[in-house]
Write a structure and sequence with these properties.
CATH topology of the largest domain: Heat Shock Protein 90
CATH class of the largest domain: Alpha Beta
Number of domains: 2
CATH superfamily of the largest domain: Histidine kinase-like ATPase, C-terminal domain
CATH architecture of the largest domain: 2-Layer Sandwich
Radius of gyration: 25 Å
Oligomer: single chain
Strand order of the largest sheet: 2-4-5-7-6
Structural class: alpha+beta
Strand content: 15-25%
Length: 277
């Protein structure tokens, strides 16, 4: 009897010890996560200031070089060539600064997500018009890429949303489709109503994503290791889908992916339709 009591007491102490260890590890992880979020936020803010200044100076110098070249037709051939080369170098530098700015903004966004400080400005949003706006912007869609769009022509699909944020989600879906599929393959965009929700999807004919990766791709900093980037020099930080999911969920919508290896990928999201009173 005494032996059983002693064994029971030892078992209880072991359980208490294991629980205390688990709590300690959990608190340590939370502290480490908090410190990392704080660092990312501070670093992102500090990097944005010089990047903004650098980009502004590059654009100003580009305009001055163009003005100088246009205004002085009597430049020597050598001088004209030097001016042209300088403008080209500035344009390339501007593009790289833009990419770096995009990465910094992504880091800043994820720090806001973890701190629950992502602000949304809700207003009436016409998804038909928003999709057309994104597709027509050459910054978001390559001129070499065929875009097949299916959008209701006789009815506007209206939601209450932060237009800039939803545009951000659409652009990221398009960017993914462009990066991971051959340039000669079309990207298909679909908009429709599904009951009380608006459904938006972007499909490509890329390599597809294995089923066991479908959950992982929405996690912060995660990138599928076996998929090769085909049409961009941007590797990315694995934040775009994580940010997109957060934005849509804060609009009370859902995100998802349908993909079969070798048969392409469809990323989709839904938003509640604006209900007429």
């Amino acid at each position: 009897m005494i032996t059983k009591i002693i064994a029971l007491l030892i078992g209880r102490e072991v359980i208490k010890y294991k629980r205390a260890q688990a709590r300690t590890r959990k608190l340590a992880r939370q502290e480490a996560q908090s410190r990392m979020n704080e660092f990312v936020s501070i670093a992102s803010h500090e990097l944005k200031t010089p990047l903004t200044s650098i980009k502004g100076n590059i654009q100003l110098m580009g305009r001055r070089l163009k003005s100088s070249a246009d205004g002085e037709k009597n430049h020597s051939v050598e001088t004209q060539q030097l001016l042209a080369e300088a403008r080209e170098l500035l344009e390339r530098t501007d593009q790289q600064v833009g990419r770096l700015t995009h990465l910094v903004n992504s880091l800043l966004e994820t720090s806001r997500i973890n701190a629950n400080t992502m602000d949304l400005l809700f207003e009436v949003c016409d998804l038909n018009g928003l999709l057309h706006e994104v597709i027509k912007d050459p910054r978001h869609v390559s001129a070499k890429r065929t875009i097949q769009v299916t959008i209701p022509e006789d009815k506007s699909i209206i939601v209450m949303a932060d237009i800039g944020r939803i545009k951000q989600v659409i652009i990221h879906y398009l960017s993914n489709a462009h990066k991971y599929s051959a340039i000669e393959c079309p990207i298909r965009i679909h908009l429709r109503e599904e009951g009380s929700t608006a459904y938006v999807s972007v499909s490509d004919e890329g390599p597809g994503i294995p089923a066991n990766e479908h959950k992982n791709i929405w996690e912060r900093f995660y990138r599928v290791p076996s998929i090769e980037v085909l049409n961009s020099s941007e590797v990315g930080l694995g934040l775009g889908l994580h940010i997109s999911r957060t934005i849509v969920e804060q609009h009370h919508g859902r995100v998802g992916v349908q993909s079969i290896p070798g048969r392409g990928t469809t990323f989709w999201f839904t938003l509640p339709l604006l209900q007429e009173k």
